Structures are given as structure tokens and as C-alpha cells.
């Protein structure tokens, strides 16, 4: 599993209806995309109390070929054509699982990014994150969650999809406009090394 996200930060007075229309009219195009586990179409809006207006799709890839086909093909080029080329954040998957609300449509997503201290053994930090992930999977309202690592920045990512509001300590909170999940069943459950 690979996780990717790009953030398109928009002006404070940007009409976020443009993003909602984009997702409503184009989101279905990834509903059967090979190699895609899931794509959450995420937004944050100043009018709802967020610090910025932002379109920030999040992807979990079941196969690297699917990820490559998206980023080197017409899918991502549409983003580049409309918004310029954003920096793509990329993490290697460490764990995935589904929560008690796995069958519900997610309404919120939460993302926490944290550095792994330079003095900390990376394996220990990741193992602790995966252990916490196991507890997270039992939280009421959780649809699905993933843990991933960016070893270029030694950053841990915890990402969760929620049927209702995400817990207050969950990190950056986004609204989910849509979920494409053609390969969700192919995402490997549990920790991703053994």
C-alpha cells in the first residue's frame, strides 16, 4: 500500500462550490480505476472554521502500477491543467484496517502528521504508531484508517475516515465530498511488514 495526497490551497474568498461541482461531475471517473484502493475527495473551508480553503484529495493505492498510471496519465494532468502542479506527499504503507462503521459513507477525514525524532529508532516509532492504530480501529464511527511513513522526512502519517465528526485530537480535519473505492477490498489489513 502507498498513500499519497496533494493540497491545493485556494484564496480566502474562493468559491468552494467550484470544487464541489468538480467532484460531483468528475469524481466518478476513478470509481473503477485499476490499482486504486480508495480516494477520499477532501476539502477544508474557512467558512466552516478551517484555517484555509483547500482541496486535498487523499489516496490509498493497492498497487503501485495504479498509482503510476494515475500520476503519469491524464488523471493527474487534469489537476495540473486546472491548478498547476502541486507537490505530492507520499508515504509507504505501514498498516491498514477498517473500523466499526466500515459500511458507512465517511463524512469526515482526519490526518495527523508527526516527525520521528532523530534520536528514536524508526522501527520502534512505527511499531508504536501501528499499535495505536490497532486501538483506533475499535473507535465508534471509524470507517477505515491507515498508518504510513515518509522515510525521506521521517514522518508518520495517521489517516482516518469517519462516519461522523472526527475526534478533536485526531489532527487536521477535512470534509469528505466523495469516496471512490474500487480496490478497497484489496488493501491489506494489519501491519505491512512481516
Topology readout:
Elements: E1 2-6, E2 8-10, H1 17-26, E3 36-44, E4 53-55, E5 58-61, H2 64-71, H3 74-83, E6 88-98, E7 108-115, H4 122-136, E8 142-150, E9 155-162, E10 172-180, E11 190-191
Antiparallel strand pairs: 1-5, 1-6, 2-4, 3-4, 3-5, 3-10, 6-8, 6-11, 7-9, 7-10, 8-9
Provide the number of structural domains: 1
Going across the biggest sheet, name each strand in turn.
Answer: 1-5-3-10-7-9-8-6
CATH topology: Alpha-Beta Plaits
Helix and strand run: EEHEEEHHEEHEEEE
Radius of gyration: 16 Å
The amount of helix comes to 10-25%
- Roughly what is the average pLDDT, rounded to an integer? 95
- Quantity of strands, as a count: 11
CATH-defined architecture: 2-Layer Sandwich
Name of the CATH first level: Alpha Beta
Fraction in beta strands: 35-45%
Number of DSSP helical runs:
4
Distance between the termini: 14 Å
Give the low-confidence spans: none
Largest sheet: 8 strands, antiparallel, barrel
Shape: globular
Class derived from helix and strand content: alpha+beta
Amino acid at each position: 500500500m502507498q498513500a499519497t495526497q496533494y493540497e491545493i490551497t485556494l484564496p480566502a474568498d474562493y468559491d468552494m462550490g467550484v470544487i464541489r461541482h468538480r467532484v460531483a461531475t468528475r469524481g466518478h471517473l476513478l470509481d473503477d480505476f485499476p490499482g486504486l484502493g480508495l480516494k477520499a475527495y477532501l476539502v477544508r473551508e474557512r467558512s466552516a472554521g478551517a484555517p484555509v480553503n483547500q482541496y486535498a484529495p487523499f489516496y490509498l493505492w493497492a498497487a503501485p502500477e495504479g498509482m503510476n498510471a494515475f500520476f503519469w496519465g491524464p488523471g493527474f494532468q487534469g489537476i495540473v491543467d486546472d491548478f498547476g502542479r502541486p507537490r505530492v506527499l507520499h508515504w509507504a504503507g505501514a498498516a491498514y484496517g477498517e473500523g466499526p462503521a466500515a459500511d458507512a459513507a465517511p463524512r469526515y477525514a482526519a490526518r495527523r502528521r508527526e516527525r520521528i525524532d532523530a534520536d528514536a529508532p524508526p522501527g520502534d516509532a512505527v511499531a508504536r504508531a501501528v499499535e495505536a492504530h490497532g486501538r483506533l480501529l475499535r473507535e465508534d464511527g471509524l470507517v477505515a484508517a491507515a498508518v504510513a511513513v515518509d522515510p525521506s522526512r521521517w514522518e508518520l502519517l495517521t489517516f482516518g475516515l469517519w462516519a461522523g465528526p472526527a475526534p478533536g485530537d485526531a489532527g487536521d480535519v477535512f470534509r469528505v465530498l466523495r469516496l471512490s473505492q474500487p480496490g478497497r477490498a484489496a488493501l491489506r489489513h494489519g501491519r505491512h511488514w512481516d
